[in-house]
Fold:
Amino acid sequence: MSNVLLNSTVITLSSNDLKGSLPRLSSNVAVLVISDNSLTGKISSLLCDHKMLNEKSNLMVLDLSMNNLHGGLTNCWKYWKSLVHINLGNNNLKGMIPPSMGLLSNLSSLHLHENKLYGEIPPSLQNCHSLLIFNVRENNFSGNIPNWIPHSTKALQLRSNNFRGHIPPQICQISSVIILDIADNKISGHIPSCIHNITDLVFNNASQNKLTFYFALIGNRNFFLEDTLELVTKGLVSEYGKNLHFMTLIDMSNNNLSGTIPSQMFGLIGLNSLNLSHNELTGTIPNEIGNMKNLESLDFSTNQLWGEIPQSLSNLSFLGFLNLSFNNLMGKIPSGTQLQGFSPLSYIGNPGLCGPPLTKICLQDGKSKDTNPIDEDGDESEFFPWFYIGMGSGFAIGFLGVCCAIFLNRKWRHAYFNFLYDLRDRLYVMVVININSFRRGN
Structure:
């Protein structure tokens, strides 16, 4: 493809074995999709072509993902203001996001995932008012989560970077977001209680969330582009394309979040997947969780949650994945076929839990049953230490008592030693008789 001049309006050459550097474009090209090839070189060879910069670009779709491109993102974006969709994911790109990307006022979808990009997200991107999908997962970005994300954004994917600081309250103003993925970072602080203001997660409006882009091209031609995202749900990594608009997800796992889970979060009844695992969250699981009727995947594992599992959790009939392991939960697992159908691994690491599917049996009061002798209150942990202490003390006192009685009382002392001498003589006679009998037999 090196030095090849492309002139067609729509060019889709994905999933071939194309090699070499990137081609050159004419101003006629509106759609360029050459993903999943073996192209190398820098993207500046395409975007900073001096011959092309003298002409007005009509390029709306640029997909160079899944190649072997390297170098930086260049600063030539000001010449490509017609761009609506950019996908540069799965390459070896390095460096920072250039400020000139903020000049792409028509940009609706930006994918920079799985590269080696670093630095902070430039504030110039707040000028991209039409941005619906912002995907920078699996890079080395740092700084705080941007607080200027457009209110119309549908998907915000920042997972697997080095973002720090607190979750900005401005994130609650992104009322249209259906995918909020900030997992695998170093974010601390509390979950904002205003999160219930994300109205598209309060109502199940899947039909209104379609992430399909329509492009009207020259010559009465149309081009449709269905965006895709890779999401972690139900413990698995899955790619969502045509069904992306049906997925509603919040993933804040693997961070340093603390405090309690705000009860307002359980008002997001349109949510399909909620993952808050591997944080430092405390408190109980509110009974309001039973309101999340559309929930299919729930992961609260490896936190510091305590108390009983609310009975309302058994009412989530669509729940297909549950992980409450490694917390401080206690009491009986609520009855109902839904919660008993999960593996015991969903509850492991909670010593106070009992009842099916665990093997630990519950008493009528909800506490676990133990077959060892315990006190009337059923407190095994207090009984056994005192039992062993008492047994050891009793033996020591009895032994000392016998020794004192023998050595302080002359009559008992003589009787004791006479008994030992007599026992010695009996044993000697027995041994001699047995030896003589053995010799006669041979």
Summary: The two ends are 103 Å apart (CA to CA). Residues 5-255 form a domain with the Leucine-rich repeat, LRR (right-handed beta-alpha superhelix) fold (CATH 3.80.10.10).
